[in-house]
Design goal:
heterodimer, A: Rossmann fold, Rossmann fold, 6-stranded mixed sheet, 24% strand, B: ABC transporter involved in vitamin B12 uptake, BtuC, 2 strands
């Protein structure tokens, strides 16, 4: 592709909300037939930018040009009619409707004369689009029967049904397996060939390097830099993005490994996992790696007492324990920081200190009567230690950023003085700054003698932080690596069943 | 978005502001209704008239207290009026055997508790949505009352049984009214000052996160259903004692006026928020409106139109005000 004029460009675009300047004089260029990666921490203004580009927000200042002409996008429809379309990390689709209905929702095709919906035509078109992206899905299937990966394909098909010219992919791989990501790359390449300008937003650098031609970096709502991918490396991008080096993101400190704290023997579940046996030692970070659907989360939830129908033995410090509920697990000293932070980790409407106090109200207030003071004092220690950013701990957790919410969840569990802390995708969807803070904190915890289990789908993270790694595939433990044996190739091969 | 976090924040201020203003708003309306009533009828300000008027709503108000907690925990109970009926029928049968007041009362409370237990077990054990379960038990409990009683009336209550519904503790302060004040305090403490209350809010806001925090969500909700049933039993004692008789149609349609009180009091029907203070004021607001309309001889059907309009108006006003206040979209 030639270094032609940009198809879609923004100059000096600003957008403020009460109390915050989300975008400050930013610039961006998207070129036809090229993938531009938009890189930035959470809070850098990426979502606001996407909304400005798709007509959901109106900029306060600055200009937007499409094919060289000045445009204004007053409504989402205006953006759509120019062929600007976004595919979001959490796709909004309708479970009960068919694939075709999802693809054409809001812009149904009708018969010219009667104005009635033309289902045969829509099915045929849906079939055609799905074929084009090599997604073997029957357009008449209700969406609820599809896997997450297939749903993404439907979301992409929906975007393409608008005859897209600018495609924005907002963290599209967050829920996809390796194989599905490969398929996505294929689609992106085809869109490139068709001359679309593509903007790709991702936190994962391996993906950015695999697919992007150019990059633009934002920090704190400002434009920082842009250029061609072949002229930079990951370390440079990270530095541009946060002003921090890679070593600071995975600040691994080896702690003294002590006695086994948690012993799991032949733990099994009727459908999710089988024959799980491992030891976890004091001072150890044990990584669990695997693809989505390998049974890691299910295993951790079983250890935490969430799942029913689990069999096998669990010992804590040589003592057999029976865990049937989270309350049992907490009592035994096992706590779990869930992957679904907002759904399972925090109560968004309650203040920080009440979230931290929640698991042990009966300990703080032995007689059952609330003491705000005691609860606040307990929370104060942990919130300070974790450097939760908030004016005070009466702030509602819902008003915090993802990284700070995660700190509240971790603080809540540390306050229970656990022996084993299970972190399930602890840095999913949080910015690099918070990520580094969480990693540093993990090292601090093991140095104090805690034992940590970390589940992560991000290979650099598991490799960067674990002392030992167990790889799971389809509900089974397929291999185990010590830190000095870590090799990305062997780990991925084990995880994919090779 | 990160930047928002460091600022002294609006949301917290506006939350307490909103809560305050909600109850303040209710109080204002209540005061207005009070003034209008006293202008509309010379009989309104008579203490004994007011005391008599209170009988029309305190029984419902007592049930509204635990129902508020239940709704805050994201559940609902539509069978409350039917529980009152069934408990009353049970008391009628016990009274027929010539038993004394304590035993009759025990029968009412016991049946109420049992009905609550049935609701609670169906909801928590079989995980059926409470709206479905209690629509079912609403017909079930009422139906059993009809079968047991048919067209007959039971009125073999002993003399001293009348005290609960007709007695006065001091001057014009009736037993029912004083009991309501005491229970309002008790529920205020329970919801706002105990671990149990805190857990109720946590469950109502996010049952999954509450469960993952080690809270036994099912047992908590079961307890709330039992509590609602028990208080329905208590309301049955008061109502039966006041009327001196039991018919199968007793307390018909009360579930809606009780839930109206709760919602009017600012309890979020989706769960998670609301206060006993709000419900407490709403109870008086509804009582005063009904009483005032009665004094100027407004027919019952018109009255329900006014109550319905008031509910929608009172709920909609703050929402509309808020819309006008911040027109800008949130980031």
């Amino acid at each position: 592709m030639s270094e032609s004029h940009s198809l879609f460009s923004l100059r000096g675009v600003s957008k403020s909300f009460p109390g915050v300047k989300a975008l400050d004089q930013v610039r961006l260029d998207l070129y036809p037939g090229q993938v531009t990666a938009l890189i930035g921490e959470n809070g850098a203004g990426k979502s606001t930018l996407v909304k400005t580009m798709t007509g959901i927000y109106q900029p306060d200042a600055g200009e937007l040009r499409f094919g060289g002409e000045l445009i204004s996008l007053d409504t989402p429809e205006a953006a759509r009619s120019l062929g600007i379309t976004a595919i979001h990390q959490e796709t909004v689709l309708f479970d009960e409707l068919s694939v075709t209905e999802n693809i054409f929702a809001g812009h149904y095709l009708t018969r010219a004369r009667s104005g009635r919906l033309d289902w045969p035509l829509m099915h045929a078109r849906a079939q055609q689009i799905l074929q084009d992206i090599e997604a073997p899905i029957d357009p008449k299937t209700p969406l609820k029967f599809l896997s997450i990966g297939q749903r993404h394909m439907v979301a992409i098909a929906r975007a393409l049904s608008f005859e897209a010219r600018v495609v924005i992919l907002d963290e599209p791989t967050a829920a996809l397996s390796h194989h599905e990501i490969e398929e996505l790359y294929g689609i992106v390449r085809r869109l490139k060939q068709a001359g679309c300008a593509i903007m790709f937003i991702s936190h994962k650098f391996d993906e950015i390097f695999a697919i992007a031609d150019r990059y633009t970096v934002f920090r704190d709502g400002c434009y920082v830099a842009d250029g061609k991918m072949e002229e930079v490396d990951e370390a440079q991008l990270v530095t541009l993005m946060v002003g921090r080096t890679v070593e600071q993101v995975y600040p691994k400190v080896e702690a003294a490994i002590g006695e086994p704290v948690l012993q799991v023997r032949n733990l099994r579940h009727p459908t999710e996992f089988d024959a799980i046996s491992f030891d976890l030692h004091q001072g150890e970070i044990l990584g669990f790696y695997g693809l989505v659907g390998a049974g890691r989360t299910e295993l951790m939830q079983a250890l935490f007492g969430v799942s029913s129908g689990v069999q096998g033995e669990v010992e804590i410090g040589q003592q057999a324990v029976t865990i049937r509920s989270p309350a049992d697990a907490i009592k035994a000293g096992i706590v779990y920081v869930p992957e679904e932070r907002q759904a399972q980790g925090v109560v968004l409407e309650l203040p920080i200190y009440q979230n931290i106090g929640l698991p042990q109200l009966s300990t703080i207030n032995a007689n059952g009567v609330l003491s705000d003071k005691a609860e606040y004092a307990l929370a104060d220690g942990y919130a300070r230690r974790l450097q939760v950013k908030a004016p005070d701990w009466r702030e509602k957790v819902g008003n915090l950023s993802g990284g700070n919410q995660q700190k509240v969840v971790i603080g809540k569990w540390l306050a229970t003085k656990p022996k084993v802390i299970i972190l399930d995708e602890p840095t999913k969807g949080i910015d690099i700054g918070s990520k580094a803070a969480v990693h540093a904190f993990m090292c601090e915890l093991v140095q104090e003698g805690l034992a940590v289990i970390m589940v992560s789908s991000e290979l650099p993270e598991v490799m960067g932080m674990s002392d030992r790694m167990i790889v799971m595939h389809e509900g089974l433990m397929v291999s185990e690596f010590k830190r000095d044996e870590f090799s990305a190739e062997r780990i991925v091969s084990a995880a994919t069943g090779g | 978005m990160e930047k928002i976090m460091h600022k002294p924040l609006l949301p917290r201020v506006s939350l307490s502001y909103r809560l305050l203003s909600w109850e303040f708003f209710l109080l204002l309306i209540t005061a207005a209704v009070f003034v209008i009533n006293s202008l509309a009828s010379p009989y309104f300000l008579d203490p004994w008239n007011l005391s008599d008027a209170s009988f029309n709503f305190v029984e419902k108000a007592i049930v509204a207290l635990p129902v508020a907690m239940l709704i805050i925990s994201r559940e609902i109970d539509l069978s409350i009026a039917s529980i009152i009926a069934l408990a009353s029928v049970a008391m009628g049968f016990v009274a027929q055997t010539g038993a004394g007041s304590p035993l009759i009362m025990l029968a009412g409370l016991g049946v109420g508790l049992l009905c609550g237990l049935i609701n609670g077990l169906l909801v928590t054990r079989f995980q059926i949505p409470s709206i479905v379960v209690t629509i079912g038990t609403m017909s079930l409990f009422r139906g059993i009352s009809y079968i047991l009683l048919g067209d007959t009336v039971m009125k073999d209550y002993p003399q001293d049984f009348a005290y609960f519904g007709q007695g006065y503790v001091y001057a014009m302060f009736s037993f029912e009214f004083v009991l309501f004040l005491v229970l309002a305090l008790v529920f205020y403490g329970l919801l706002h000052k105990t671990n149990f209350g805190r857990r109720t809010y946590a469950i109502g806001n996010n049952p999954t996160a509450a469960f993952y925090s080690g809270i036994n969500v099912a047992r908590h909700r079961l307890i709330l259903f039992v509590l609602v049933g028990l208080v329905c039993g208590l309301a049955a004692v008061l109502l039966t004692s006041r009327l001196g008789s039991t018919r199968p149609t007793i307390a018909l349609g009360w579930e809606l006026s009780i839930i109206t009180m709760v919602v009017l009091g600012g309890v979020n029907i989706m769960g998670g928020s609301g206060t006993i203070a709000g419900v407490f004021i709403a109870v008086f607001l509804m009582g005063l409106v009904t009483f005032g309309l009665g004094l100027i001889n407004v027919p019952g059907i018109v009255m329900s139109i006014i109550i319905g309009g008031m509910l929608i108006g009172v709920i909609a006003t703050p929402v509309l005000l808020k819309k006008f206040r911040n027109r800008k979209p949130a980031p």
